[in-house]
Amino acid sequence: MVTLRLVDEENFAQVIDLTVAEKDQQFVASNLRSLADCWLYRENGDVFPYAIYADDKVVGFALVDVDDEEACYMIWRLMIDWREQGKGYGKSAILALIEQAKALGKYSTIRADFVKGNHRMEQLLHSLAFTIFGQDDREIFTRRTL
After folding, report:
1. In which domain, by residue range, is 16 found?
2. Among 63, 71, 144, 145, which is most buried by a count of CB atoms within 10 Å?
3. What's the Cα-to-Cα distance from 40 to each of 43, 47, 55, 66, 71, rounded to whole Å?
4. How many domains does the structure of the chain reveal?
5. Residue 104 belongs to domain with CATH number
């Protein structure tokens, strides 16, 4: 079973140690970078880092950015450690994030963008009813109604 826990002093070192395969590094920022981004935006109170657990083991990381004005819950970054991929943890984590967004009761959409060429993420999001609504030079933008 996958659960989400805020990154804290108990799990941050494990989160930092997570990596993706070398061929996938172009698709996601390092977790250290993500935690630095979280620190930079801490005063806004709208960016939240989560360790993704399978039972009691940290297997991945998610960075969430919420926009109360636009009623949007955004999966800013999501990664599963290369040693843990292919076990359904990514899908389970997104489903947990969807449930978390619904439970908060103030978001009408959930968004997840991905770097062009990341076909596994594209297929995963499509399988969970996310639809493409735009793109820029680097990323494709997807969302789904909650």
Report:
1. 2-145
2. 63
3. 8, 10, 30, 15, 22
4. 1
5. 3.40.630.30
